[in-house]
Design the sequence.
């Protein structure tokens, strides 16, 4: 059963700093204000002024140590590294530094299902919520998936399950945060503009399980180096999801997805029950099934719900066909590994579109995955580096924008091909975010479709 509320920090009438006033920072500030805190905001001006007047007792720049005066708690938004000078100054003064998810956890009743990893977090979280909804289990889905944890605290009761997508940034400054079910999907290089190496990045991810006990559940990909390493040191019950796995977990046996324990096995679903594109999404579904089965929440009617899950916007999303060419919008792809998974998961010949702003990733490791790619289109700020990294591995062409990309794809492509828009980079060179990029790609596809039928 879900656990009761956690120990709340005593903030009423006391001064609390929130550094970073984007979406999660604003949600944290509002939660603190509701609990009677005097909230001090730290930001360089990228926040709604009217909201600030209603919510904050004061506003400081990040270079002003005056923000720390009399503070009893320092809440750090995920976009701010914990090496920031103001964060270091807070610690030197003995002020506890916590992430927004740690703050929310301390106020939130209910039990956590915390999902992290390099790719597939949002899909796995959304699918877990979809299945819980079908089973009539009271729950919320929040965190890095779009709704800040702090924003849902007021709606929670002890009976709730909280399905939380969490990033490495959010996990850096947790403390009491305790996941009844911790899920670590596969780890691959990411955010190496923030972390010195993959070991540091993986260590931040592994913090998702740091407070777990033998009564808790840890779900990992056991054939992933970092998943196996976490499982070997965890105090929790371990459930794997893999094709070749002999211990407790969800395994693929032919077309059956089987929950297997040392004592028994149960067919939960069939491969054809998973309606998502790509073999990596089959793994995400297996992880979600392992969560429910491992927590004792699985019922047969969840299988029908699995068939109705349509995935998340801009994650391997079909945009239909034009002239026999299938268009797939994977705008949320921002890592080499997400591109690799998308390419490996799609049948037939591919036209691949890469580009945006690179975040310190090396695309040379993608070279061996381009055998089925007819052409790689490169665009945006990272195009010159991508051209160097992939030279000789495939036919490369640069395009100026999305409309040029689609025009050229229709010129080169053949019926049965798939244009896979899986950028592998962030969107911030040309777009507000990955969602904006995805909407613009969809709009470009519609412009082409309308022009062809004019």
Sequence:
């Amino acid at each position: 059963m879900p656990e009761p509320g956690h120990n709340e920090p005593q903030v009423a009438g006391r001064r609390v700093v929130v550094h970073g006033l984007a979406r999660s920072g604003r949600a944290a500030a509002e939660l603190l204000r509701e609990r009677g805190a005097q909230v001090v905001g730290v930001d360089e001006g990228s926040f709604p002024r009217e909201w600030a007047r209603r919510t904050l007792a004061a506003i400081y720049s990040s270079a002003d140590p005056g923000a720390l005066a009399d503070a009893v708690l320092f809440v750090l938004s995920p976009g701010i590294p914990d090496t920031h000078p103001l964060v270091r100054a807070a610690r030197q003064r003995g002020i506890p530094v916590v992430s927004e998810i740690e703050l929310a956890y301390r106020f939130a009743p209910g039990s956590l299902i915390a999902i992290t990893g390099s790719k597939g977090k949002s899909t796995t979280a959304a699918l877990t919520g979809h299945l819980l909804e079908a089973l009539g289990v009271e729950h919320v889905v929040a965190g890095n998936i779009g709704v800040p944890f702090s924003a849902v605290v007021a709606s929670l009761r002890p009976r709730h399950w909280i399905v939380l997508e969490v990033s490495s940034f959010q996990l850096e400054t947790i403390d009491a945060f305790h996941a009844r079910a911790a899920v670590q999907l596969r780890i691959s290089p990411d955010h190496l503009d923030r972390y010195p190496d993959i070991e540091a990045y993986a260590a931040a991810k592994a913090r998702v399980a740091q407070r777990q006990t033998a009564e808790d559940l840890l779900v990992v990909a056991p054939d992933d180096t970092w998943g196996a390493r976490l499982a070997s040191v965890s105090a929790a019950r371990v459930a794997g999801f893999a094709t070749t796995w002999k211990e407790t977990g969800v395994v693929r046996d032919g077309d059956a997805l089987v929950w297997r324990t040392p004592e028994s096995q149960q067919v939960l679903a069939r491969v054809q029950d998973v309606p998502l594109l790509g073999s990596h999404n089959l793994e995400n579904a297996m992880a979600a099934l392992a969560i429910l089965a491992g927590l004792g929440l699985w019922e047969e009617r969840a299988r029908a719900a699995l068939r109705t899950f349509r995935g998340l916007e801009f994650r391997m999303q079909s945009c239909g066909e034009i002239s026999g060419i299938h268009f797939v919008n994977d705008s949320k792809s921002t890592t080499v590994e997400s591109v690799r998974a998308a390419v490996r998961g799609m049948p037939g010949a591919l036209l691949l579109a890469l580009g945006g702003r690179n975040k310190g990733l090396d695309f040379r490791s993608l070279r061996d995955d381009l055998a089925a790619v007819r052409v790689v289109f490169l665009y945006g700020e990272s195009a010159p580096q991508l051209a160097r990294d992939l030279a000789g591995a495939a036919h490369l062409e640069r395009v100026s924008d999305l409309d040029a990309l689609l025009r050229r794809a229709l010129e080169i492509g053949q019926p049965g091909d798939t244009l896979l828009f899986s950028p592998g980079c962030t969107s911030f060179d040309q777009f507000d975010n990955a969602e904006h990029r995805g909407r613009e790609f969809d709009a470009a596809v519609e412009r082409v479709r309308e022009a062809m039928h004019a």
Notes: Residues 1-5 have pLDDT under 50 and may be disordered. The first strand starts at residue 15 and ends at 19. The domain at 102-308 is CATH 3.40.1190.10 (UDP-N-acetylmuramoyl-L-alanine:D-glutamate ligase). The longest helix spans residues 434-452.
